[in-house]
Amino acid sequence: MWIQQQGLQIETAAYIDEQGNALRDDFSINDEELIEMYEWMAKARTFDQRAMKLQRQGRIGTYAPLQGQEAAQIGSAFAMREGDWVYPSYREIGVSLVKGMPMSNFFLYTMGHLEGLAQQQANVFPVQIIIGAQCLHAVGGAWASRYQDEDSVSIAYIGDGGTSEGDFHEALNFAGVYKLPVVFVVQNNQWAISVPIHKQTASTTIAQKALAYGITGIRVDGNDAVAVYETMKAAIEKAQSGEPVLLEAVTFRQGPHTTADDPAKYRLPDEEARWGEKDPLERMKRYITGLGIWDEAQDVALFRQADEEVTEAFSIALAEEKSQVADVFENVFERKTKQLEEQQLDVKGAEYSWR
Length: 355
What we know:
Helix 1 (about 30-55) packs across helix 2, helix 4 (about 105-110) packs across helix 10 and helix 5 runs parallel beside helix 6 (about 165-180). Helices cover about 45% and strands about 10% of the residues. It contains eleven helices and eight strands.
């Protein structure tokens, strides 16, 4: 019997439509949590917009914006438990903020400070630049967690482009074979830099790739924060019981891939306008306003407060003493090897003579 993907029926989970109307009535999230989730989304967007401006001013380095992906990030992070671990790529600022990362650390990171990657405050691994490598790390973390009999789930975040990398497939295969407590969250934002999703994969969906590795897959409207939250909550429960999950959140990157990119060279305005109507913040705002638990005055106050928090975070980052090249050697091993000590001395000597 031939196996054809046309025979697969992959539905996209959704709880709220684009106008902010409820599509179902089995929400587990309460009004207070809805407001808190929206507040995190607003904070993430405010940070993102300020970071873009600061990069254009030359005050921070290259930055990967998340605008348009707030629901996918905040909704999934909000569903996590305190002991769950996050293995991010370079765009998961919203996730990391919810998990307890200080906002100033992200500014430090973009300014080249080593402390920007010091993440002892939260269960968040350092930013991973190598595409897909975080998936393998998450599998390793999940395996260690199970070995040590810990009640935690590892969550790896990756973009649609990253699913074309070998590390992604190796991680899913390993997770499936060993039934590890891990969730792979694919933020399908339609573009891998300038490459559209249909050139990344011939699969109708990314979620269906789970079937090849014997794990559970689900597709969710990534601009619907409630749908992402509810789906992620169920995914974590499945992973906790030894059922790995591949979760595809269908969303859209409203800005460039990074500040070194120009989407106008490969993306049509019509596509941006169409996805702009699906904006995750506007959808959530319409929903909670319709419930009578939010109004415009509260919204103005929220964004004003978020702006103040971002300003304070950048001020904290500016006050930090700049990292030196020699400091890099302090972050390799708990105890430096003799070779590292010699290399560090060489660097310090070179810096001294250069000055």
